[in-house]
Amino acid sequence: MSEAGSSLMAVEVSGIQRQFSGRIVLNDIALSIPRGELFGLLGPSGSGKTTLIKLITGIDRADSGSVRVLGQQMPQLALLARIGYMAQSDALYNELTGRQNLAFFGAMYGLKGQRLNDRIRAVAELVDLEADLSKQTGAYSGGMKRRLSLAISLLHEPELLVLDEPTVGIDPLLRQSIWRELNALSRQGVTIILTTHVMDEADKCDRLGLIRSGQLIAVDTPEAIVRKSGTATIEDAFIALGREGGVLA
Ligand SMILES: Nc1ncnc2c1ncn2[C@@H]1O[C@H](COP(=O)(O)OP(=O)(O)OP(=O)(O)O)[C@@H](O)[C@H]1O
């Protein structure tokens, strides 16, 4: 693909293989995600979702194949400022307050002064943590830590947002408002890749990638996946594909 063509794509993965101790965990993955798309990765526990998004963010390196993000070959240190990543386990400093955590990560992304304060206020409001910013993070509940991690991933207004199970432990009301924000960001052109086990969240994605045993078995809109699998819902489609070992072309 030409440079001009590839820049329309936020993510281009081809021929990816990743193994751990000789065991193949991702096998021949090819995937292109256009800019501004809200893309969901779905798959059973241990199927390779986190491994794939770690390759996309440049945290891990594939054994073979190519990963391009925002038109550049990964891993690429310079791209980190353009990517927001929320890992499955929270990487927070427990002895610092919520605000200090936000300030620390904000400074890492080059934010300072009024701009840093404005962004801290905006993301704290988004995840409903304004009243808790002065508390030590070690005293936060699991859901509050998730919300703070999400706020950190949004601080520097990244062009690509990669979220590993972002709404686990978050109550339904806040989950709704987070989804409103994800949709708004997507409309503004931010590309979002998230993993989820929640089927009604999968339904909200522009397209889904279904992973099973390290292989991408279907990539399509939620409606098309349901239609092609001959089932009534994404959940049924997912179960049918897992059970039958089927692949949707
Ligand atoms: N650093 C590692 N060393 C060895 N094995 C690993 C490593 N990271 C992942 N694996 C293995 O790779 C496989 C895929 O793991 P991965 O975390 O990508 O799954 P997942 O689909 O994200 O699962 P979950 O939904 O439970 O988070 C698993 O069998 C896991 O044990």
Structure description:
- The longest helix has 16 residues, at 172-187.
- A hairpin with a 2-residue loop joins strand 1 (9-20) and strand 2.
- With 249 residues, the chain is an alpha/beta fold.
- Helix 4 (113-126) packs across helix 5 and helix 8 packs across helix 9.
- The chain has one domain (3-244): P-loop containing nucleotide triphosphate hydrolases (Rossmann fold), CATH 3.40.50.300.
- The chain has a six-stranded mixed β-sheet with strand order 6-7-8-3-9-10, with helices on both faces. Strands 2-1-4-5 form a four-stranded antiparallel β-sheet, covered by helices on one side.
- The chain has helices at 3-6, 49-57, 98-108, 113-126, 142-154, 172-187, 199-202, 222-229, 234-244; strands at residues 9-20, 23-34, 38-42, 64-69, 72-73, 83-86, 160-164, 191-195, 207-212, 215-220.
- Residues 20, 25, 43, 45-51, 88 line the site of adenosine-5'-triphosphate (ATP).
Q: What is the tally of helical segments?
A: 9
* Shape type: globular
- H-E string: HEEEHEEEHHHEHEHEEHH
CATH superfamily: P-loop containing nucleotide triphosphate hydrolases
What compounds are bound to the protein? adenosine-5'-triphosphate
* Unreliable stretches covering 5 or more consecutive residues: 1-6
- From the helix content, strand content and strand pairing, which structural class follows? alpha/beta
The side-by-side strand order for the widest beta sheet comes to 6-7-8-3-9-10
- Span of the ends, CA to CA: 22 Å
How many separate domains? 1
The portion of residues assigned to helices is 25-40%
Provide the CATH topology: Rossmann fold
Beta strand count: 10
InterPro entries: AAA+_ATPase, ABC_transporter-like_ATP-bd, ABC_transporter-like_CS, P-loop_NTPase
Protein name: ABC transporter ATP-binding protein
Organism: Paenibacillus radicis (ex Gao et al. 2016)
Keywords: ATP-binding, Nucleotide-binding
